[in-house]
Amino acid sequence: MSNAFREILRKIGSGPHTGENMTRLEAAEATRMMLLQEATPAQIGAFMIAHRIKRPTGEELAGMLDACDQLGPKLQPIIDSQRPVIVLGTPYDGRSRTAPVTPLTALILATAGQPVVMHGGDRMPTKEGLPLVEIWQSLGVDWSRLSLAQTQQVFETTKIGFIYLPSHFPLAASLVPYRDQIGKRPPFATMELMWCPYAGVAHVIAGFVHPPTEGMFQGASALRGKPQYFTTVKGLEGSCDLPRDRTPIIGTWQPGSDLERIILHPRDYGFEGKEVPLDEKALVPEMQLVLQGKPGEFTQAAIWNGGFYLWHSGVATDLSSGLAEAENLLKSGQVAQKLQEISKAVASLSTFEKYLSGAGDLTSGG
């Protein structure tokens, strides 16, 4: 048992009258001890539920991110990138009600030359929703088969990368079962939304559900002085996907600056509509229709999101031109070609890995 961890646990778990917040250093140390399994399972579970009840602070999130920066993976900067790399922070426990458009948004951005990094794992408690990695697999891109070095190769050649927790950050993946055991999302689920597994200049776009989360994001980024650019989106199921049935709530800032609001009314641009419900069996066929440029509600959602992020990342000069460019990239087949490029790049590396493994077996046997 870690006595140091016990003292931190006592500090946050003493109730509303005598309990205290952790300092940034204490939060970093607690996170480090949990990731390295220096704390016992009982201590880790107790911390997660106590911290959830207390609620995290921006300073505590900053410390947790410090520990992840120290122990976690990072994709290295793309030399020829002229813009900050966009990091899409979406809930790891996936989607259950609305169809995710995030992979299509990433493809549109990469097709236009804007690099994108995503991160996440498999189906995760407590929601057990559809995760991004499964959607990519159904589209023919299996990020789970790549090492970090191979992911870097794909990132450099295609402008899209995906940090897959079980392979690239197993220390963090080892804490996932606790979410099921405590039956609640721990504050790690909040920290993950603003985690940046990229070593260069980044623009983190984090989804959120509850308004206080946005303030915690801002407090943590101000203390850490990074990422260099930050955007929050009250998106569909806490994701970065902009809604079409209501006005998106978007905030943007740089560390040390005040939050600025971006107010967009979908109806003003002809994109107001109902959200597409999630049907896991129909999702990929629906995405294929979007990639073919076929009209429909899901295509409208892809253009609405792709157009906004093309503008917000600086690829397009204004929202109207961003929307037009997103529509053109889809209808021209360029986004579909980008998907094929990524699929071939991932498949070739996976095949090469299989070849090396087979050669190693033959060598050891002969």
Automatic annotation (TrEMBL):
GO terms for molecular function: glycosyltransferase activity. The keyword Ribonucleoprotein does not apply. Keywords: Amino-acid biosynthesis, Aromatic amino acid biosynthesis, Glycosyltransferase, Transferase. Pfam families: Glycos_trans_3N, Glycos_transf_3. InterPro entries: Anthranilate_Pribosyl_Tfrase, Glycosyl_Trfase_fam3, Glycosyl_Trfase_fam3_N_dom, Glycosyl_Trfase_fam3_N_dom_sf, Nuc_phospho_transferase. It comes from the Bacteria. Residues 97-334 form the Glycosyl transferase family domain. Residues 6-68 form the Glycosyl transferase family 3 N-terminal domain. PANTHER family: ANTHRANILATE PHOSPHORIBOSYLTRANSFERASE (PTHR43285), SLL1634 PROTEIN (PTHR43285:SF3). This is Anthranilate phosphoribosyltransferase family protein. It comes from Funiculus sociatus GB2-A5.
